[in-house]
Amino acid sequence: MWIDSHCHLDAAEFNGEQALLVQQAQQAEVAHIILPAVERANFATVANLAQQFSCCSYTLGIHPIFVPQADDDDLDYLRQQVQSALQDPGFVGIGEIGLDFFIPMLCTPDMRAKQERFFAEQLKIAREFDLPVLMHVRRSQDIILKYLRRLPVPSGIAHAFNGSVQQAQQFIAANCKLGLGGAMTFTRALQIRRLAQEFPLSALVLETDAPDISPAWLHPQRNEPAQVARIGVVLAELRGIDVASVAQATSENVAQALPRLNLQRGLRTSA
Q: What is the largest CA-CA distance in the chain?
């Protein structure tokens, strides 16, 4: 069985197709899909999808791309929703949170400061409720790590990891897994493929980030959760081990990173 540890099934690109996409994923032996929220406006959407499809779980958080239009009321609302969601078996953590120092509009001094403040406040919420975090770490690994040292959380996943060996080691030391997806399938992605080959399999989880980061065989078309199985085959090939071992290990790693995850929910879906 495979787990897609990061999929935006609520994205507009999938409007009305969610039931078909879930069915196709299960036919590809993807047993579970994690749906991160990105802003206050989609908290209810990801929660409802997880209720509709028992093979889905969700997290709640404010993505750095949505920080510019967010305010402190959104942080208060997040904390309230997290507290309520603790009663929901489909809720598994805080995310997608983090920092993005790639998009120019997010890199002004004021916006960097706001991003960092929102990230720190969401780490505090994760600590308050003893929850793991799904983190966006684009061009921001060192600053993310600084905050994790200052505000350590129980566990987490560095989504779409594309950092150095030293940064990877520090994330692992902080009890975080490294998320690998479509970028790993491109032969030019030398650093990511090196990490995929050399780091302990116990440190790695698989993801699609669908509809984004399509694998080499789909690019530039949209990505879909069923693709995590074929992405896993690439990881097995890079490591020179059998596919079943990769499927089992990466699924166990997601369960370790997200202790609230109940894989038994994945035995049934509803349209």
A: 50
Q: Look up the CATH number of the domain holding residue 79.
A: 3.20.20.140
The letter for the amino acid at 269 is T
Name residue, tokens 């790695």: 204
**Residue 268 has what pLDDT?**
40
Q: What is the mean pLDDT of residues 107-123?
A: 98
Give pLDDT, residue 232: 98
pLDDT for 215 beyond 80: yes
Residue 119 and residue 133: Cα distance in Å, rounded? Answer: 11
Count of the separate structural domains present in the chain: 1
Residue 269 scores a pLDDT above 80: no
Q: Are 119 and 94 in contact (CB under 8 A)?
A: no
138-181 per-position pLDDT tens digit: 999 999 999 999 999 999 999 999 999 999 999 999 999 999 99
CA distance 109 to 44: 32
What is the enclosing helix (H) or strand (E) of 245? helix 243-257
Query: Which range marks the domain in which residue 179 is found?
Result: 2-267
- Measure Cα distances from 101 to 68, 116, 136, 180, 255 in Å: 13, 11, 10, 20, 29
Report the 10 Å Cβ neighbour count for 102: 11
Residue with tokens 């080959």: 197
DSSP secondary structure letter of residue 93 = E
CA 14 from chain centre, in angstroms, equals 18
| Number of neighbouring beta carbons within 10 Å of residue 169 | 13
